[in-house]
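Progress note, project year one: complex with glycyl-adenosine-5'-phosphate.
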Amino acid sequence: MEELTKKIISLTKRKGFVFPSSLIYGGFSSTYDFGPRGAALKNNLKKAWWNEMTKRQKDVVGLDSAIIMNPEIWQASGHLSKGFADKLSECKSCHQRFKDLEEDGKSTEECPNCGGELMEPRDFNLMMKTFVGPVEDNATTAYLRAETCQGIFVNFKNVMDSMRVDLPFGIAQIGKSFRNEITPGNFIFRMREFEQMEMQWFCKKEDADDFFEFWLNQRLNWYERMGIDMSKLRKNEIGEDERAHYAQRQVDIEYKFPFGWGEIEGIHNRGDWDLSNHSKHSDADFEVDGEYPWVIETSIGVERSFLAFLTDSYHEMEEGREDDSGKKETVLRIGRKLAPTKVAVFPLLKNKESLVEKAEEVFDKIRKDFASIYDETGSIGKRYRRQDEVGTPLCVTVDFDSLEDDSVTIRERDSMKQIRVNIEDLNKVISQFMKGEEFISLGKEV
Ligand code: GAP
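Model obtained:
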């Protein structure tokens, strides 16, 4: 594994972003839990996407559909028969499974991993099976959803009728998806349980090409506004042979991870594949004015974009940021909207009661409006570095002058500049900063 990935994994575990799941029982293959900072970052990411899609964009409404749905949905969508079913060869010794060995010019008899004997290729399906009903013998076999959007398609008419929306319009949803991935890995990049943020845009067939370009640009524009390094983002037009079974056109948005370019979002023209198939397999009539609407889909993975934003913000060895022992520090330059904690509050000294009392007062005032943390241990320099490492954009210090003039010093993570601000203006100043105002314009530089 690359050095940088190792460092990022270590930081995320040490600082409560991501923990390997079920560790006390020896872990569980490719599943992860998100610690307090990771949960906050994930929520911020989801909130940013939700606001973008259902507030900033016009004519997009939200939905929250079930994870386990009628299994016929997956028959109609093609997931039980087409792109999600693969023929795999399993090794009799190490039980690893391989696909496309012959196409890749490899032996179909000898396991590439351990040299063991391979079984004949067998059918595997990426859909996760479960049973609905307490007695397994009589229970219905059902599936955990493999993509959130099928819940959107089957609710297409419900939304249209209840919300009085007309073409073109979109439905957005955030939620868990499950896939029995053959080769999970690269930390949280490919997992078996993950979250998707999907938007299906329903439009007339003749407008689909234009809307494809529109949504592709809107999505790229969002990453730019969220502060990602655009030189590490690229569009990848996927050829016919490699496209998902439902896609007439597919452009992947890829990020340059330390392990190589990886897809974080897919923009798909799904044509009328889903609505027409659900109409055929059910009683639904999904036609509008005698035709099936076409669908442009934007589908982003929460954990993959989490990893992209985290990787992008990871900086080390910055000039002037050595700690007391001369070791250069790590700074997580995560965007203001995504940062798990927005403000840290410090009393200059922890053994001066008046400073501690005042700092606690300031902390109480701030934490009602912003995710904040209070820290009184170690030197101020050490406390700054602790916050830099987890991406906190602002640190507020209560010093002896604060006791006289009711003002505090705010230090900004990226520029390391400091301003002096009246305590009564503090929440307003932080709010302006969070909205994107230039830090130095918000107070008197010190
Ligand atoms: N509804 C379309 C769809 O599901 P996809 O390209 O299969 O398209 C969309 O998935 C996004 O979901 C991907 O770009 C990725 O961010 C995320 N994703 C897919 N499989 C994943 C996995 N095994 N682990 C983590 N994220 C995954």
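The first strand starts at residue 18 and ends at 20.
The mean pLDDT is 93.
No further modelling is planned for this target in the current period.
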